[in-house]
Request: fold
Amino acid sequence: MPKDKTKVKKCLFPAAGYGTRFLPATKAIPKEMLPVLTKPLLQYGVEEAISADIDTIAIVTGRGKRAIEDHFDISYELEHQIKGTSKEHYLTEIKDVIEKCTFSYTRQMEMKGLGHAILTGETLIGDEPFAVILADDLCDNNGESVICQMTKLFEEYKCSIVAVEEIPPQDSNKYGVIAGEAEENGVIRVSDMVEKPDPKDAPSNLAIIGRYILTPDIFDILRETKPGKGGEIQITDALLAQAKKGRVIAYKFKGKRFDCGSVDGFVEATNYFYNKSKD
Ligand code: UTP
Reply:
């Protein structure tokens, strides 16, 4: 049966980075496994993908990241130990996630940047549109999840989509920043994109956060993309090339985002989810 190329069924999680901002915690534990309350960042990301009806999870890992595979696997001994006790419910959510999805993994052997990590995931994605979630950007809202908002938008636009939010101008050197023309409800057609510009060179105050929908031609573009800012292969550069050839849109998502790759963002997220759990 031919694939329906308007539906996003797979989600890629690049999770091979070193997480240097969280050393020494990330020396032996993947950054994506750091918990906000009792749940690792990556599990929040997978649950977000499930909320958008995505059931095929592809994870790009690296050396020292085995805990990720173990987390999304059955743990017979532990389950046997707590079966029938008052603690059994602690595993309900993760068991549900494991049941709903299939997981596949590939390793990025050299950490040459986010663009390179996404290209490494090509073997797991193939020739179809896919979502990308950076689990260290933790998103939350009371309605539709951010990736669900984006997969719906994809059905309408059928082109790559980046999620953006307004940032204080002085923070532009931490993000990819876009410029473009506003179309309708929060949608902007991208005309320019710059990776981590100095505030004086930033084309706007709209920064790309860790949610993307990509069309599979991005892989060929990434293969041709030269190392950019920081000597890394940047997805921002590949997306600008794609925007110039055709169309890429930016979407001002509804919801809250926490940069859990930074200590400040992580603490903020922890407080937010703690307060939410008490409500
Ligand atoms: P970051 O820019 O946050 O880098 O990557 P990092 O290495 O994880 O963290 P710091 O800056 O050293 O503290 C953004 C996302 O891209 C992935 C990371 O795992 C993270 O989810 N990534 C980055 C890769 O998978 N491979 C890379 O080569 C670079």
Observations:
- Residues 14-21, 31, 60, 108, 111-114, 116-117, 134, 136, 261 surround uridine 5'-triphosphate (CB under 6 Å).
- The chain has a mean pLDDT of 95.
- Residues 10-278 form a domain with the Spore Coat Polysaccharide Biosynthesis Protein SpsA; Chain A fold (CATH 3.90.550.10).
- Residues 263-278 form the longest helix (16 residues).
